[in-house]
Amino acid sequence: MDPRLIELLVCPLCKGPLELLRRDSVRELGCRADHLAFPIRDGIPLMLESEARAWDPEDTPASA
């Protein structure tokens, strides 16, 4: 995913910044404030609360 696009996207709930997360082959965008990870499917971030999973920022470091 293009880093410039990630900089433009914000969490749909709190409007805070998002981080690119990688676990195995799965990519997600994580919100530290809400402790949610939004999936990226076929290069498209699904920014719906119903699609998000709980995420503990302390357990999963963000990708560089």
Automatic annotation (TrEMBL):
InterPro entries hit by this protein: Trm112-like
Family per similarity comment: Belongs to the UPF0434 family.
Protein name as annotated: UPF0434 protein ABDJ85_08230
Species for this entry: Roseateles paludis
Lineage: Bacteria, Pseudomonadati, Pseudomonadota, Betaproteobacteria, Burkholderiales
